[in-house]
Design brief:
By secondary structure, the chain is an all-alpha fold. Helices cover about 55% and strands about 0% of the residues. It has 2 domains: about 1-45; about 50-80. The model has no long low-confidence stretch (mean pLDDT about 80).
Amino acid sequence: MAHPKEIKYKVQALRKEGKTYPEIMTQLNIELPKSTLSDWCKNVPMPNWYKQKIEDMNKKASLKHCVPHMHLFNYSAKNY
């Protein structure tokens, strides 16, 4: 399926601002496979702070999964 070039350019502009693929799709009110977005953005330079944003998101997602199970290992969420 062909997509209008204007959509591709908007996606690239938002990615350059450091938006994630889900954020881009929400902001543009579109649904596309992440592989399409990744292909469109493969040469888009990311802001320097972006790596920290992804690390923070991954940590948050990891804790969301781990915290409910910490009681199994006698850990407290306040340790994290």
